[in-house]
């Protein structure tokens, strides 16, 4: 026989079940009970899968993002048929004035948008995690120097700086030979988003490291003669995965929206390539005559950002040990 914390008596098999669950299993149980989180996960996986398997989807339904269908538009560029030319040949219609298939442009554009957002998010998390942990663990002069660097970057009006530096920096990247044309623009977006994004995450990690460095297991490692490197990588980092995972799920949609905004403003990828920001920018001039063209990429972006945000909230709740299990 065994007893719970509230004094209730439970039999041995039940006690064994209660004590055999790992934190990961408990988190998964909490997550499965969150119906909104499950729906957000399914929606997120749907859009990510569509982006990853865009060539296969395009081949299966015989669509091409760079192929114009002149038979789907009139001589004046208007789409033929209802709802922007939606048909079996074009499941989401065609772009007015050009005749590109919207579905093909949408899923191929999602590849670029997700690529920028994913790499920028991972770069932000890696740099912010390392700098934040080092600053919080060593404190003193190291914390002071890294803290001033963080304050310096936080003081910059990042939105205007990204716009102002776009032309010279893209030209410098092309001149260096690292990338050309749209590849240079993608690289520039990733670099500046990560550069101005890591200070926020670094502050979170610094506060976590300040708390963890005073724990008994860290003091014990120091007493046993463990090096600073071992303490950071073996003791501190394994205990920081919860905020890291939560931040990942919340930062990705933010960078997706940012990529769309900068592409809309002409800083990101340019035609003939497509991103969601470019599709929205191009659809503005047809918003009254062809509203379907505007709604499809706009609603898609809203759904993706919303689903990832809700997924992040669900992950945060699932990883919270104070969440109740019913």
Structural notes for this entry:
The protein has 326 residues and is mostly helical. The chain has one domain: Orthogonal Bundle (MetI-like fold), CATH 1.10.3720.10. It has 13 helices and two strands; from the N terminus they run ββααααααααααααα. The chain has helices at 12-20, 23-32, 35-52, 54-60, 102-138, 140-155, 158-176, 181-212, 216-223, 228-236, 241-264, 276-283, 291-319, and strands spanning 2-3, 9-10. The protein has a two-stranded antiparallel sheet with strand order 1-2. The longest helix is centred in the middle third of the chain and has 37 residues, at 102-138.
Q: What would you say about this model in short?
A:
This protein is an all-alpha fold.
Please compute the radius of gyration using only Cα atoms: 25 Å
CATH architecture: Orthogonal Bundle
Give the C-level CATH assignment. Answer: Mainly Alpha
| Number of individual domains | 1
Low-confidence parts lasting 5 or more residues at pLDDT below 50? none
Major sheet description = 2 strands, antiparallel
CATH topology: MetI-like fold
Strand content: under 5%
* The CATH fourth-level homologous superfamily: MetI-like
Order of neighbouring strands in the sheet with most strands: 1-2
Summarize the helix and strand pattern as letters. Answer: EEHHHHHHHHHHHHH
* Overall morphology: globular
């Amino acid at each position: 026989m065994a007893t719970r914390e509230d004094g209730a008596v439970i039999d041995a098999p039940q006690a064994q079940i209660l004590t055999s669950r790992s934190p990961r299993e408990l988190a998964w149980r909490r997550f499965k009970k969150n119906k909104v989180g499950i729906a957000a996960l399914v929606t997120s996986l749907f859009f990510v899968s569509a982006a990853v398997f865009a060539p296969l989807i395009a081949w299966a339904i015989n669509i091409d993002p760079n192929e114009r269908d002149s038979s789907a538009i009139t001589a004046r560029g208007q789409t033929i048929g209802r709802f922007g030319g939606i048909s079996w040949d074009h499941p989401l219609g065609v772009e007015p004035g050009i005749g590109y298939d919207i579905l093909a442009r949408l899923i191929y554009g999602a590849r670029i948008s997700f690529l920028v957002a994913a790499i920028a998010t991972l770069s932000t998390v890696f740099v912010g995690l390392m700098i934040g942990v080092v600053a919080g663990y060593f404190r003193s002069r190291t914390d002071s120097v890294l803290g001033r660097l963080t304050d310096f970057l936080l003081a910059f009006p990042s939105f205007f700086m990204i716009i102002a530096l776009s032309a010279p920096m893209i030209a410098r990247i092309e001149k260096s030979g690292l990338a050309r044309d749209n590849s240079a623009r993608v690289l520039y977006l990733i670099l500046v988003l990560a550069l101005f994004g890591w200070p926020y995450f670094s502050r979170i990690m610094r506060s976590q490291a300040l708390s963890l460095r005073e724990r008994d297991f860290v003091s014990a490692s120091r007493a046993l003669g463990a090096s600073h490197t071992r303490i950071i990588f073996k003791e501190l980092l394994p205990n920081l995965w919860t905020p890291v995972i939560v931040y990942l799920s919340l930062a990705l949609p933010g960078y997706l929206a940012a990529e769309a905004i900068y592409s809309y403003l002409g800083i990101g990828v340019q035609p003939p390539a497509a991103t969601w920001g470019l599709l929205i920018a191009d659809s503005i001039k047809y918003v009254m005559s062809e509203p379907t063209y505007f709604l499809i990429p706009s609603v898609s972006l809203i759904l993706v950002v919303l689903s990832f945000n809700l997924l992040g909230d669900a992950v945060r709740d699932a990883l919270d040990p104070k969440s109740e299990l019913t």
